[in-house]
């Protein structure tokens, strides 16, 4: 099996695997050629940092779940407790109450001590966090590896006017830094500051940049003061800021323009929040109806009906106990979908993609430009009538489970929406698909017969022995900007991977595939719900696809925008 031109290493976890490494996973894209403005060095010694503490109410917000749990156990065990008091006498009751009070005081004191020992500092290069009482721990989130900034407000924190700031950075599981809890206004100001520093803006009050230093680009293409325009697919109106590569003349898909970048700073020494333009909002009624039409809810209901009929006819209710796990799982799924989908809104800004959603726990996410590694569009059979789609994404630092009907909220780009909104969601991540008519391409791949697309790579006839149901529904299309892979007959899935975000490539061939002359191409992405792969291709097609993707990925990464996305275009003198 031929592979990419450079040396490869077999993957021991598969029967036969050829891998072409394009870049170390989770590392930032290489900076483009040309001079870059120097970065202000860190202060000498960490004690010189401006260390700050969390809000004093943090121990209460963190510990309320424990208090509620203890009270719930006490209520459920009240009868046993009363019997114990009667048996041992009032003195024993007082001793037990005293011990409980001592434990509560110790727990509260430890929480306060932990709060006092937790501090954070923000510099031009990183966010530093110190915590721990007995075992000290210090973590840092480098701003040049910042993948997303989330403002999270659990129910009690929202009632108290507090918020948690979560910084997701590239670096694997456990690399994120959480600042919990801050005043809501303070957390919002800090979010704006971190995004501005990560984008390459200069801290207000430090004087102008040198004349030869890269400056923040102008993010509008119209006249100053004109309202944002909506451009066609492939134009320069990139939803999350910047310019697209290889623009085309497609006119079918709507493209929300980006508001102009906010001023770098104002007189009070603070960064100014960038304006935003809302792209879509998901109605609550659609979220509820989508849950009702979800297969994850329908199958447990069918199982309950199947057990209820024999129980009524034959008087054997024992089967209901078997269904308890499935029923509780379905209820958890329903609550998660409703809680995370209510109030879902998406907007664009120079900072990136902004997502807001949540019922009891509100979350405001900001994903900077170029941080989305892959996108997946999914349509279950019961969503086929209204033509609804769910759009999920891989972002380094978020992680999330893969496959199935995921309930993770932070990796969702669109919980449920018609095809037009699903196409717009893809546009937020990849405004230029590298074809003249991107809407026609997406419509074909989202249809019942994706193989109708001219130039699509499809599974040959021998693949029906391994996939007799959906082998005719597998197709892959390679454009100048991305790979689009479609699969599934009943549940339709379309995966989109930008070339510059491909981590590595591999070809897998199991014993049955080898016997039939088939192979699968795997695109390794960051952890998340999207696991892109193209299964059951002819072996020659798989080798050719591997080579083509390898070449395109290297070229795309060489021309990718820098991590400080507001420094890649100079302003005219």
From TrEMBL:
Protein name, entry field: Putative membrane protein
Keywords of this entry: Membrane, Transmembrane, Transmembrane helix
The organism of origin for this protein: Cellulomonas marina
Transmembrane regions listed in the UniProt entry: 63-86, 92-115, 296-314, 320-338
The UniProt record lists the keyword Manganese: no
Region (Disordered): 1-39, 203-259
InterPro entries: UCP026631 (IPR014529), YdbS-like_PH (IPR005182)
Record domain YdbS-like PH: where: 115-191, 471-548
Keyword presence, Transmembrane: yes
One Pfam family per UniProt: bPH_2
């Amino acid at each position: 099996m031929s592979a990419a031109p450079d040396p490869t290493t077999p993957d021991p976890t598969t029967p036969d695997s050829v891998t072409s490494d394009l870049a170390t996973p989770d590392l930032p894209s290489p900076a483009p050629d040309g001079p870059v403005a120097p970065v202000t060095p860190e202060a000498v010694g960490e004690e010189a940092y401006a260390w700050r503490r969390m809000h004093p109410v943090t121990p209460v917000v963190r510990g309320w779940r424990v208090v509620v749990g203890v009270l719930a156990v006490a209520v459920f065990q009240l009868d046993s407790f009363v019997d114990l008091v009667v048996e041992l006498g009032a003195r024993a009751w007082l001793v037990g109450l005293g011990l409980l009070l001592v434990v509560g005081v110790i727990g509260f004191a430890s929480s306060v001590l932990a709060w006092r020992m937790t501090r954070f500092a923000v510099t031009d290069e990183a966010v530093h966090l110190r915590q721990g009482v007995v075992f000290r721990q210090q973590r840092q989130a480098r701003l040049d590896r910042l993948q997303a900034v989330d403002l999270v407000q659990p129910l009690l924190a929202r009632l108290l006017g507090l918020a948690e700031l979560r910084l997701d950075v590239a670096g694997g599981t456990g690399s994120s830094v959480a600042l919990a809890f801050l005043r809501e206004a303070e957390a919002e100001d800090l979010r704006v500051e971190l995004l501005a520093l990560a984008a390459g803006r200069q801290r207000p009050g430090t004087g102008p940049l040198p004349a030869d230093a890269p400056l923040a680009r102008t993010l509008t293409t119209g006249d100053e003061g004109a309202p944002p325009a909506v451009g066609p697919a492939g134009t320069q109106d990139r939803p999350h800021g910047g310019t697209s590569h290889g623009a085309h003349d497609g006119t079918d898909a709507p493209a929300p323009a980006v508001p102009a970048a906010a001023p770098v700073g104002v007189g009070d020494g603070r960064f100014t929040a960038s304006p935003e333009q809302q792209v879509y909002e998901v109605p609550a009624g659609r979220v509820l109806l989508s849950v009702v039409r979800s297969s994850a809810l329908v199958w447990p209901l069918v199982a309950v009906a199947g057990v209820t009929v024999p129980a009524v006819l034959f008087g054997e209710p024992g089967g209901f106990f078997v269904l308890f796990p499935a029923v509780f799982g379905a209820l958890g799924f329903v609550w998660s979908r409703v809680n995370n989908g209510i109030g879902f809104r998406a907007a664009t800004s120079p900072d990136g993609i902004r997502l807001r959603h949540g019922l009891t726990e509100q979350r405001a996410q900001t994903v900077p430009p170029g941080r989305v590694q892959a996108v997946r569009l999914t349509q279950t059979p019961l969503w086929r009538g209204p033509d609804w789609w769910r759009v999920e994404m891989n972002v380094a630092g978020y992680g999330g489970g893969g496959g199935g009907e995921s309930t993770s909220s932070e990796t969702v780009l669109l919980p449920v929406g018609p095809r037009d909104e699903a196409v717009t969601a893809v546009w937020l991540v990849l405004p230029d698909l590298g074809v003249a008519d991107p809407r026609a391409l997406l419509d074909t791949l989202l249809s019942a017969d994706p193989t109708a697309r001219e130039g699509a790579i499809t599974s040959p006839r021998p693949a029906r022995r391994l996939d007799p149901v959906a082998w005719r529904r597998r197709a892959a299309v390679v454009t100048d900007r991305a790979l689009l892979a479609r699969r599934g007959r009943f549940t339709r899935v379309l995966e989109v991977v930008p070339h510059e975000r491909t981590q590595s490539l591999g070809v897998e061939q199991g014993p049955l595939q080898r016997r039939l002359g088939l192979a699968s191409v795997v695109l390794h992405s960051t952890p998340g719900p999207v696991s892109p792969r193209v299964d059951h291709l002819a072996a020659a097609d798989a080798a050719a696809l591997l080579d083509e993707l390898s070449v395109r990925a290297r070229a795309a990464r060489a021309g990718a925008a820098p991590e400080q996305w507001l420094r890649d275009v100079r302003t005219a003198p």
